[in-house]
Specification:
34% of the residues lie in helices and 25% in strands. A hairpin with a 4-residue loop joins strand 3 and strand 4.
Length: 108
């Protein structure tokens, strides 16, 4: 995967991640890569209560990642125009902002 850096994905501040894409479209690679990162066993172990839901459609719809945080705020990313690194950076910046422990760890 192009964006699978060694950065750890932490789902502590996340309540739900809903990912939907049309399987046979050419613009879903980044969305699939993002799904692989947040759906990995290591990432899921950081918050066992976080729901990761993937919906595969066959209607040529745009790939969408909809993230709901524990405080109710939502982040919706359209995967057709973003690469997986951009999606991961946006996701992790909000996670870090919402998790006080992650803020202190980032300062060290």
């Amino acid at each position: 995967m192009a964006a699978s850096r060694k950065a750890a994905v932490v789902l502590k501040a996340v309540k739900k991640i809903a990912i939907q894409f049309s399987a046979f479209e050419s613009n879903v690679r980044s969305t699939r890569e993002f799904l692989a990162m947040v759906g990995s066993e290591k990432a899921r172990s950081t918050n066992i209560n976080c729901e990761v839901i993937s919906t595969v459609k066959h209607d040529k719809s745009e790939p969408v990642v909809d993230i709901t945080y524990v405080d109710g705020e939502r982040l919706v990313m359209k995967g057709a125009k973003l690469n997986s690194r951009e999606m991961l950076n946006a996701f992790q910046s909000l996670c870090t902002a919402k998790d006080p422990q992650a803020k202190t760890a980032a300062k060290k």
